[in-house]
């Protein structure tokens, strides 16, 4: 786990200029391009990090977890032919649509217990975004190795 954390921090530092609150990435590119030698260094270390990630996934898959299910909608970016990270259509389990079609279906409301906090619902129901939603909606675009670990 520490090897992966350190590897991730190293990538962010090389690409972003520092590991916390990166400075160099900008919309459309970089304020300063990453050093090519350091990029090659990352590539050399990537196979060891990938192996560590697979081993960590195997470790967590062997643990016993309490039975827990929560009904919710997953919402994530999606593209028709690749794993979406940066742009694409807004996808749910049932449909994919442009942001202009999707946003009117989101209702924001304030939480009574905390007037400063806002919540949102999709068509009147709670929804989940983030890494787990992206995986659940776009797992068919994972590499074969990532698919086998994901299962």
TrEMBL record:
InterPro entries: NiFe-Hase_large (IPR029014). Keywords: Metal-binding, Nickel, Oxidoreductase. It comes from the Bacteria. One of its GO terms (molecular function) is oxidoreductase activity. Its cofactor is Ni(2+). This is Uncharacterized protein. Belongs to the [NiFe]/[NiFeSe] hydrogenase large subunit family. It comes from Candidatus Portnoybacteria bacterium CG_4_10_14_0_8_um_filter_40_50.
């Amino acid at each position: 786990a520490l090897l992966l954390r350190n590897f991730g921090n190293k990538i962010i530092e090389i690409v972003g200029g520092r590991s916390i609150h990166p400075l160099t990435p900008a919309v459309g590119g970089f304020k300063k391009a990453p050093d090519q030698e350091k990029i090659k260094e990352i590539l050399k270390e990537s196979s060891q990090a990938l192996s560590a990630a697979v081993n960590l996934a195997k470790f967590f898959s062997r643990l016993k977890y309490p039975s827990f299910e929560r009904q919710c909608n997953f919402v994530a970016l999606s593209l028709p032919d690749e794993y979406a990270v940066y742009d694409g259509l807004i996808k749910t389990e049932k449909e994919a649509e442009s942001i202009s079609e999707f946003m009117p279906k989101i209702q924001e409301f304030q939480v009574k217990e905390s007037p400063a906090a806002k919540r949102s619902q999709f068509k009147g129901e709670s929804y989940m975004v983030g890494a787990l939603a992206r995986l659940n909606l776009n797992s068919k675009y994972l590499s074969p190795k990532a698919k086998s670990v994901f299962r």
